[in-house]
Amino acid sequence: MIKKYFTPSLLVLILLVIWQITASMMNMAFILPSPLQIVEKLWEIGDILLTVHLPATLLIVVIGLFISIVFGVGIAVWMNGSKTMERTFYPLLISSQTIPIIALAPIFVLWFGYSIWSKVVVTVLITFFPIAVNTFDGLRSSSKELRELLLTMGASKKEIFFKLNVPSALPHFFSGLKVAVTLSVIGAAIGEWVGAQSGLGYFSRRMMTQFDGAGVFAPIVLLSLLGILLFLLVVYFEKKSLRWRKTE
Fold this sequence. Notes:
By secondary structure, this protein is mainly α. Helix 4 (101-112) packs across helix 5 (116-140), helix 4 (101-112) packs across helix 7 (157-194) and helix 5 packs antiparallel against helix 7. Helices cover 84% and strands 0% of the residues. It has two domains: 1-32; 33-241, MetI-like (MetI-like fold), CATH 1.10.3720. It is a multi-pass membrane protein. Belongs to the binding-protein-dependent transport system permease family. Keywords: Cell membrane, Membrane, Transmembrane, Transmembrane helix, Transport.
């Protein structure tokens, strides 16, 4: 276990030391605060970040991911069951990723105001694609030989779906979900930057207007940690759900 994490931990430590030395030499904390200054800022404003702004961002992430999972899996199942739906929705899924989300965020603020839903929509647009596409690819990857075997054994379409298609799609679903959870944090932060009254992205932007470099980086650190924790949570559920699959 120690050997497994020694090399990445050493690399992170070296980068932090270089960052600390560079920031100390520049002595321009409003542009590049040192890691120690960021830690001091986190200690100073940690209460308000953890009790007010982190819950606001986490709520956006949870709602956005829930909507993306429901509609993403639903669209994937629908496209897998109908070639017409595949030809209809798949190009729309691709084209939805060609539009810069940061350009659409102000429009959502005009539509939904500074409510939570303007941020949720941004999060859904970012996280919906990897879940839908990966799940769809997983459903299509089911073995044709096994399908024919189940048909010869008298299995119904429902039984084939749950006993063959779903197990085949689960690894792909979790792969898409691992991408989506990290993107969800980015989506929430983008939405809060454009227009919000609370949240880690909002607080970072507010600190930027005050030329407080450490205050800008402090909520970014929490956003990064939130993304890592969500990723590890998905990995945990993946291992629990896919015990039948041999993994290292």
